[in-house]
Design brief:
The chain is of the alpha+beta class and 348 residues long. 27% of the residues lie in helices and 24% in strands. The structure holds zinc ion. The site of zinc ion has 5 residues, from loops.
């Protein structure tokens, strides 16, 4: 009999004479949660901030159209091409998606997928077929490039930063694809923890996690081999979501049907976030190494809405806690957040 996952939390109580309550002695609670896999802590606090207001995104789209490197009239002229030994045609296409080398690479194989001919795609009406084509193109590129990466283990990582609060430098929708032996600290540590879990418990952590979450307070939906829920430990200030491919460990291993299912569900979740007044996100698909055969991992996607804390000040939603102390920080409980998302998904 395997042990259940440990969902651990501690409460913190700050005592203050609160000016909002005529200086009555008050206790303000916050919570620290520990990730059941890594043991990493994350905080949940109640924090007052101004109501979010959607900026005029059509004005932003118009302003950035001129000089956009990914629009059809300039993409062929201003984006680089791969050498023939990597890609004989220099670039790859699928539907509206076009894959080109990153002009500012941060790894040996670092590519960009311009996802659409349209300069701007609204978050509440993201077309699943466009997203699916971009993912399939990324997969095909990873399969092409991986044999060329000289490494003990190679990872094919696909990321989408959408709109400026996420760090995206272009409004035109685009994904990043890297094929690397350096997958980042977070993924490396999670995979190491999953390997230890598998050795100790004789079952993969993702299967145990899925079993623990399915149908629970943080559960969102499951269809076509892709399950969605809100993680027990939050990553973003306003709550985030994660997907798991039930049968795949890598993007490279996904067939078209799996990527179609994921794109379909992702677009629904993005529309739900848009109805919360959000208009930017980071999405990363977290795979195992391409050659890994232990079965320790399943491909997961982390979806993190991003925003400016203040509509005029444009202060960032990330500060010292996240960046310097490595501590995640949320203003809503994952269970409340999941309930809101479920209601929005059901209302479609
Ligand atoms: Zn454009």
């Amino acid at each position: 009999m395997s042990a259940p996952l440990e969902y651990r939390a501690t409460r913190k109580r700050a005592r203050i004479h609160d000016p909002r309550r005529e200086f009555a002695l008050s206790e303000i609670e916050s919570e620290v949660r520990y990730d059941p896999l890594t043991g990493d802590s994350a905080r949940i606090c109640h924090f007052a901030f101004p109501k979010r207001e959607l900026p005029d995104l059509s004005a932003l789209a118009e302003r950035t159209r001129n000089g956009c490197p990914f629009c059809p009239d300039s993409v062929e002229r201003v984006t680089p091409r791969y050498p023939a030994e990597l890609l004989p045609e220099g670039r790859m296409r699928r539907g509206e998606a076009l894959l080109v080398p990153n002009l500012f690479p941060y790894d040996d194989v670092s590519a960009i997928v311009s996802m659409s001919r349209a300069h701007f795609l609204a978050m509440d009406a993201m077309p699943p077929a466009v997203v699916a084509d971009a993912l399939k193109l990324a997969r095909d590129f990873i399969l092409t490039a991986a044999p060329l990466v000289e490494a003990r283990e190679a990872f094919g990582i696909v990321t989408w930063n959408y709109m400026p609060p996420s760090g995206a430098s272009q409004v035109h929708p685009h994904m990043q694809v890297i094929v690397t032996d350096t997958p980042g600290n977070q993924l490396r540590r999670e995979l190491e923890a999953e390997a230890r879990f598998l050795a100790a418990q004789k079952r993969p952590y993702p299967a145990a996690l899925l079993e623990a979450e399915r149908g629970g307070a943080r559960w969102l939906d499951e269809a076509g081999g892709v399950a969605w829920w809100v993680p027990y430990c939050p990553t973003g200030m306003l709550g985030d979501a994660q997907a798991m491919f039930v049968d795949q460990a890598t993007v490279a291993g996904c067939d078209d049907a799996a990527l179609d299912s994921f794109a379909q569900s992702l677009c629904s979740v993005l529309a739900a976030y848009a109805r919360m007044g959000l208009w930017s996100f980071n999405l990363t698909l977290m795979p195992d190494a391409l050659a890994e055969t232990s079965g320790r991992h399943r491909l997961t996607a982390r979806l993190l809405p991003r925003f400016y804390l203040h509509p005029q000040l444009h202060n960032s939603d990330t500060a010292y806690l996240q960046l310097l102390l490595g501590e995640k920080f949320a203003m809503i409980t994952p269970e409340q957040h999941a309930a809101e998302l479920r209601a929005l998904l059901a209302a479609r």
